[in-house]
Design brief:
Structural class: mainly alpha
Oligomer: single chain
Length: 171
C-alpha cells in the first residue's frame, strides 16, 4: 500500500471508529481486553479495506467485519480461559474471580449486554447505534420485519436482565 492508500484507510477508520469501539466494549470484560479487541477490529478493517464491495454501505461493512472479529475473538478467548481454568483446577490453585461492579448506568448497560448471546448483542448494539431496521436487516441478511421482532424480544430480555441485577443489588 502506498501512503495515499494508508491515508484513505486512516480517514475511514477515524470516521467509523465509534462502531468498532462500541462492539469491542460490549464483547470485552475489562479495559485491557477492550483495547486489544478494538485494535484487532481495526486491523481486520484495515486488511480487508480493498475488498469492500461497491454495493455495500460503509457502516454495513464496518459492522460485519467488527462483529465477525469480536465473535471470533470471544470464542478464542473463552477456549483459552477454559483451558486455563482446567489447568488451575488440576493444580489445585486458588483462582479468585475479579468482578468489576458497574458504577454508572452505561457500565450497567454494558454489563447487561454482555449477558446476551452474541447474535442478540450484535442486534442490540446496532439498535442502540440507531441504525434503521432496513440497515440492520442488510447487515444480518434478514428481513426488516424479522429484525423488528427480534429487536423487540431482545429489548425485553435486556430489561429483564437489568431489573434482575437491580433486584440482586437491593437484596
Amino acid at each position: 500500500m502506498d501512503s495515499h492508500e494508508d491515508q484513505r484507510i486512516a480517514e475511514f477508520l477515524a470516521l467509523h471508529h465509534a462502531i468498532a469501539w462500541k462492539i469491542a466494549r460490549s464483547f470485552s470484560n475489562d479495559d485491557a481486553d477492550c483495547n486489544d479487541l478494538f485494535q484487532e477490529i481495526c486491523i481486520s478493517i484495515w486488511t480487508a479495506f480493498d475488498s469492500i464491495p461497491d454495493e455495500v454501505r460503509d457502516t454495513t461493512y464496518v459492522y460485519r467485519v467488527a462483529l465477525n472479529r469480536a465473535i471470533s475473538w470471544r470464542r478464542k478467548r473463552e477456549s483459552y480461559l477454559g483451558h486455563l481454568r482446567a489447568y488451575l483446577l488440576r493444580n489445585q490453585s486458588n483462582a479468585i474471580a475479579c468482578e468489576h461492579a458497574p458504577h454508572d448506568e452505561t457500565e450497567e448497560l454494558y454489563a447487561a449486554i454482555q449477558k446476551l448471546s452474541d447474535s442478540d448483542r450484535s442486534l442490540i448494539l446496532m439498535y442502540l447505534d440507531e441504525l434503521g431496521y432496513d440497515a440492520m436487516a442488510e447487515i444480518l441478511g434478514a428481513k426488516p420485519t424479522a429484525v423488528r421482532k427480534r429487536v423487540s424480544r431482545v429489548k425485553r430480555r435486556l430489561a429483564d436482565i437489568i431489573k434482575s441485577e437491580e433486584n440482586q443489588h437491593e437484596s
